Amino acid sequence: MPTKYNLQELKFDRKALARPGYGVKTATNVTAKLPATQFVLLPRLLPAKAFSFPYHLHRFAEELFIVLEGTMLLRTPHGVQKLKQGDVVFFEKGPTGAHQLYNPGPRPCVYLDLRITPGFDVCEYPDSGKLLVAPEGGIYRKNSAVGYFDGEENPLTHWTAAQRKKKRRRK
Prior knowledge:
The protein is mostly beta strands. Helices cover 12% and strands 37% of the residues. The protein has a domain at 7-118: Jelly Rolls.
């Protein structure tokens, strides 16, 4: 069954990101209604003098922004450009799709953030060298990578411990 909503009825969260300088808000009355499994629709409000999120890219999600109201600045690997009402911007997966918004103006901006995701994603933050694993939400330093077999030198000890646990549960 089709899901309908009206852009005039968006209700944005009062909470913004808990960090000075960042302030994007999401209209949860729309996102909660969608029964989609891979398509995400996030109407967002970016207050004056605020950044959306840290500069980032997605490894598994593609995004499309549609500016509904106002003007803002977009940072990408190609530099900074102005976005205005009616602009549509697509962000592909990987480093070439890195992005961040900033609203330097006196009024809020409203945009739709449409995303296709397989239910998980890895976001990379080039400015700070972090990785976010979603939906789990763990944030890690990219430069702390380890080898595939690090900590796996003696698998027999793990098997022995698992067998002991099984025997204890039977008693």
